[in-house]
Amino acid sequence: MKFKRKEKSKVMSKGMWMVIFIAVIMVLSSIGFIYDQSGGSKMTYNGYKFKQAGNKWAVKISDQYQYFDYYPGELVFLNVTGLKEKILASPNITITFDSETQDLSYIDLARFELANHLIKTKIVLNAVANESKAYQLPVVTCNNATNDNVVIYFKRGPDLSITIDNDCVIAEGKGIDFIMLKDRIAYAYYGIMD
């Protein structure tokens, strides 16, 4: 008895086409990811070379990359005389804010990211400007600021600005402004901006 062998179909099955399609998509995605990582904008500001890393700006300072949301050229309108000197001269920095204000998510993010920059060489304390049940932090205002303990006060206000009142740096704005203010203060700390 002879058995007839079934001939293999010369037409690929739907399953095989699906496997090939998924493999092609994965390869193209990998190529796009690698290209995106090596590409990006590169700019120089005050002798520092910045490159875009995703949605952040990266700059190498003392052999470590520091990341910012804004390129310094976008923040030149926040011109503050003496900010760099004020921050660099004080061994301690207290970051305070009004805990009853709107925009707490932006303020919290700004406080956290600024503290991460400053703790490299400073003792950083977080505080609130008024009693708070939500934040178990000490109450510190501009009245507590000294040469040895500069206070940075994130304050909600109609205008985007940074002012210095004796040993208190008042960073005023609303919403996303607090992220700009954080970057501007950090750039002064690193000496990238005056």
In short:
The protein has helices at 14-38, 83-89, 104-118, 177-190; strands at 42-45, 48-53, 56-61, 64-68, 92-97, 123-126, 149-156, 161-165, 168-173.
Explain this structure to me?
- This protein is an alpha/beta fold and 194 residues long.
- Helix content is 31%, strand content 26%.
- The chain has helices at 14-38, 83-89, 104-118, 177-190, and strands at residues 42-45, 48-53, 56-61, 64-68, 92-97, 123-126, 149-156, 161-165, 168-173.
- Helix 2 packs across helix 4 and helix 3 (104-118) packs parallel to helix 4.
- The longest helix is centred in the N-terminal third of the chain and has 25 residues, at 14-38.
- The protein is elongated.
- The N and C termini lie far apart (95 Å).
- CATH third-tier fold name of the domain at 80-190: Chitobiase, domain 2
Shape descriptor? elongated
Low-pLDDT sequence parts: 33-38
Kindly report the average pLDDT value. Answer: 88
Radius of gyration: 26 Å
Strand content: 25-35%
Contiguous helical run count? 4
Give the beta-strand count.
9
Write out the strand line-up for the largest beta sheet, numbering strands in chain order.
6-5-7-9-8
Strand-pairing-aware structural class: alpha/beta
Gap between N and C termini, in Å? 95 Å
Largest sheet: 5 strands, mixed
CATH architecture of the domain at 80-190: 2-Layer Sandwich
List the helices and strands in order. Answer: HEEEEHEHEEEEH
CATH class of the domain at 80-190: Alpha Beta
**Helical coverage, percent range:** 25-40%
